[in-house]
Structure to design on (427 residues):
């Protein structure tokens, strides 16, 4: 596989085209969630305290089992690597007493649900998957609340269930797409006021690579779940006021994974009127590279690429979300999938004949980022016990990178191995 073999590259925005400063962003996400629980729902103020212990409990790829009220780290075979009950990690003996053979019994049904349209989980789906940087920082908040109530209390389960409901409400309160324009919630006002604190500038090297890709006839498309105004704010900060010149097509509020998993007839595109800042009245059946579009379906974008591409070739989607980007793209589209895994920055690959030109400086500069959790262990697990997320990455991704800017290091005619961790080695 070579970059020059592609007729188009489609990109997610958050944590893909746009990098966030995790040192600042992770505590902020914890804080806005805690503020909602304390100020809006009356939870105790000790939830607001954020210390080093909280940072060490943060990690993507964990699962909250709402039936046992345990936070789980599950291997690619369903074996339990670690279990936290809110107060502490359970010993291997205690895990075996609760979970026979040290196996999480719901592993099969859990993963099967994510092979379906995971925006509509099946009835009785009693788990929270911390697959996103937008929600994984609340893991220590969940642990703190579960640990503050004695499991011996007769109504422990009811209190926990109410907390889960309030936690879901906090996500809606803070992340609803309409909140930026309405200036409500805690997330968007903070991001507007302190954009430069949380959002990193794209390197000139990567911007030059985007131009080079376009000059070589490769169409570049943005497909993001973020609303138009938020996309404009972040892309303008990261790439400059002329950011649209780098891309041929912009699709916002894509409502992934439905963008990939739903039927085309149920997911029409709408045009965006920048002056009115509103949806067009009529549904759009064909796309124009001059426009900005909302919602829609991947097949319409694929048709646009085939009609407008300067050359025939493959199409790849580049994204970071396990359920919204990686699984859905691989299972429901004809596109290749390039996965972005921030945790890879902690494991720069040693120089080799296959990978001797990757910019190691990028990894060294990011070496202090809190993406490798010391309490839970590595996001990837070990060779003997690979985590569920690491195993599924290898199964669903054609290429896994620690940063989208690694694409700057690939020569256009360079052959690269598929189904691998490209610029890092966690084992």
């Amino acid at each position: 596989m070579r970059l020059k073999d592609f007729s188009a590259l489609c990109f997610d925005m958050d944590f893909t085209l746009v990098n966030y400063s995790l040192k600042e962003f992770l505590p902020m996400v914890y804080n806005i969630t805690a503020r909602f629980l304390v100020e809006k729902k009356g939870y105790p103020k000790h939830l607001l305290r954020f210390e080093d212990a909280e940072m060490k409990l943060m990690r993507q790829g964990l699962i909250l089992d709402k039936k046992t009220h345990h936070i789980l780290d599950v291997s690619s075979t369903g074996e339990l690597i670690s279990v936290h009950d809110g107060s502490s990690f359970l010993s291997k003996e205690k895990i075996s007493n609760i979970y026979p053979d040290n196996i999480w019994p719901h592993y099969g049904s859990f993963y099967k649900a994510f092979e379906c349209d995971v925006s509509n989980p099946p009835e009785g789906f009693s788990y929270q998957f911390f697959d996103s940087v937008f929600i994984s920082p609340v893991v220590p908040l969940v642990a703190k609340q579960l640990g503050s109530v004695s499991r011996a209390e007769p109504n422990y389960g009811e209190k926990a269930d109410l907390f889960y409901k309030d936690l879901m409400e906090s996500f809606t309160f803070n992340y609803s797409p309409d909140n930026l324009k309405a200036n409500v919630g805690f997330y968007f006002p903070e991001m507007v006021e302190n954009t430069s604190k949380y959002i990193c500038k794209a390197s000139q090297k990567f911007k030059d690579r985007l131009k080079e890709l376009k000059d070589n006839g490769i169409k570049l498309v943005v497909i993001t779940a973020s609303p138009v105004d938020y996309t404009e704010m972040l892309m303008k900060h990261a790439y400059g006021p002329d950011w649209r010149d780098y891309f041929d097509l912009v699709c916002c509020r894509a409502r992934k994974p439905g963008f990939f998993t739903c039927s085309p007839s149920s997911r029409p595109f709408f045009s965006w009127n920048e002056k009115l800042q509103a949806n067009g009245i009529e549904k759009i059946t064909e796309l124009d590279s001059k426009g900005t579009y909302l919602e829609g379906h991947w097949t319409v974008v694929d048709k646009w690429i085939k009609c407008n591409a300067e050359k025939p070739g493959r199409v790849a989607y580049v994204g970071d979300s396990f359920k919204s980007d990686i699984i859905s793209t691989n299972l429901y589209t004809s596109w290749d999938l390039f996965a972005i895994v921030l945790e890879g920055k902690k494991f720069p690959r040693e120089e080799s004949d296959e990978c001797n030109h990757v910019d190691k400086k990028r990894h060294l500069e990011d070496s202090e980022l809190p993406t490798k959790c010391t309490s839970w262990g590595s996001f990837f697990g070990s060779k003997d016990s690979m985590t569920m997320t690491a195993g599924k990455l290898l199964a669903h991704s054609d290429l896994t990178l620690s940063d989208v800017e690694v694409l700057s290091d690939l020569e256009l005619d360079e052959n690269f191995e598929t189904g691998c961790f490209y610029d890092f080695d966690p084992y």
